Amino acid sequence: MTALPASADPFAAVEPSLSSARRPWRLAELWLLLLACAVGIGAFALVGYGVRGALPSSFWTESLLLVLLSLGAHAAIRLTAPHADQTILPLVVFLNALGLAMITRIEETDTRQGMMANAISQIQWSIFGVVAACVILWLLKDHRLLRKFTYTSMFIGLGLIMLPLVPGIGRTINGATRWIVVGGFSVQPAEFAKIFLAIFFAGYLVSARDALAMAGPKFLGLQLPRLRDLGPLLLVWGAAMAVMIFQTDLGVSLLFFGMFVAMLYVATDRISWMIIGGTLFGAGALAIINSFPHVGRRLDGWLNAMDLIDVPGGSGQLVSGMFGLANGGLTGAGLGRGHPYLVPFSFSDFIYTSLGEELGLTGMLAILLAFLLLVERGLRTALLVRDGFGKLLATGLSFVIALQVFVVVGGVTRLIPLTGLALPFMAQGGSAMLANWMIVAILLKISHDARKPSIEPDRGVVLQQPPADAPAGSRGDSLETLPVPPPPPGKGAFA
Amino acid sequence: MGELTFNLLQYGFLLLLWLFVLSAIAVLRRDLRTRADGQAGGPTRRGRRKAAGASAPKAPRRPTRLTVTAGGLQGTQLPLTNASILIGRQPGCTLVLEDDYASSRHARIFPQDDQWYLEDLNSTNGTFLDDQPVHGTVPLPPGTPVQIGRTVVELQA
Predict the structure, then answer these.
(1) Residue A64: what pLDDT?
(2) Using the beta-carbon criterion (under 8 Å), do B83 and A492 form an inter-chain contact?
(3) Is the pLDDT reported for residue B34 higher than 70?
(4) Per-window interface: A 354-393 vs B, CB < 8 A
(5) N or C terminus of chain B: which is more exposed, having fewer CB within 10 Å?
(6) pTM (two decimals)
(7) Which residues contact A494 (CB under 8 A, 6 or more apart)?
């Protein structure tokens, strides 16, 4: 598809002088940012008063850093991507601040978990994330440049996924081999692999989609792709299965395979890819669950949650999270006044139930809606941008956020088996925070490219030698002067 | 602090959460409205004034955009500048068609002396102006359909 920029004012291009003078003020973004900061600071204060009747010890640091971080990101966008979507940044700041407040809250009553919740470390990572985002906005002049790194990205992405298997630096925590430890820092390379694989999938699919959309045999009224085109899908499927077997990580495996299938569907407009992909993944996962006890236990704890509460590695965490949700009810127990700290990993994997307990269904739905809007803005960017690579990249990056939210929220509310992924922007974890802010930067850049008003036609100013007698007209005329009356047929300038 | 204060603060905070989310939605709605205005054919107020000002001494309605009225890109609009518009399948074209019946450089629409012209660039399947095949360059009046492969475009005021 080659949708053109339906920029806010289609007439902006009529008068170049006017449109270049119109640099957007981004007031909507500023207003939403102020609201998001108010939410964050309000949450910090309430958390402190709820837990021990005073402002939390880190209140001023966190509030100040939150405001600086928002304004810094806002200024960076004004400078580097002034036409980008105005809601993306405030939504991310909103989610980030709420997550931070909940981590502060757990830290305030951290009796059981040995100070694992660490709000200051989390806000440091948020700052690193914003700085990384600004660097990307600054360095990446045009998102289409990323297409040059299609195959480099593939190697980096696959390398990052496989990194935890390297003996010596790989770490297995709670059954999943998802971490590496470098110089005292533990890093989840898979979070960064998301970005590289999205670039690779977009670059690959934009050149291969014509072949992949070819019609093959028909089966039960469904148009299947040609058999020989199944190769790439099988390859990605094999990699996803390998991640599940060797790293016993259902979540990461599902994330990458799901992203590939979704981008494949968007690139080819063939629903059969999704059906084939879903079937392959389901079959593979079932086979692995039956033969590997660790993965199977997750499924057991999901199906028979209430029976396995006291079994080690059973469903105790899941069930106590759900008790928390029940305690929260419609309007929540109040910030700082529930018992979310009773759930293991209430500040990371289970942050959504912690928020649900203290903010209730009302707050949970507001958070989900914020994620929904964020993903919607990403997909809208994909619709607006003109080049196929940008479309696929924006789709992939937005979809990976959507899928991750679905898998996490579905997991902690017992809709689907628990996978141990982290809720983007909210759960404690440095790698995820950094990687997700980088995703936001790329989305903002694509959005800017999609929305900036074009003074000249964006694609293909016809490069052609002007005739020798061409009058020196304005910029557009000088390239395109043809003698009128027209030349005889067949002797046009382009023959 | 008393129980009542806590509850009021909690409800106030939840209101703030929703105020944020609803404000974000309001920003998006405004975005949608400006876009719908642009596409429904009613030029925005400023655009109308500008177009009227530009063409006041000349013909009453001067085309301001090229609209795709049929085909895969139906609904797409290109603002007209004084640069020419190249239509075809080649990625370098101004309007890139994904249409098997279009040539890679199919046709060109360009302005000259306050008038737009259509030129067929020796396309394989031909360009049709109001169902008549086009040879070489012909004047292109606004509102007349130009068929290129399965795509139909026209100039609109």
Answers:
(1) 95
(2) no
(3) no
(4) 359-360, 362-363, 366-367, 369-370, 373, 376-377
(5) N
(6) 0.75
(7) B105, B108, B121, B122
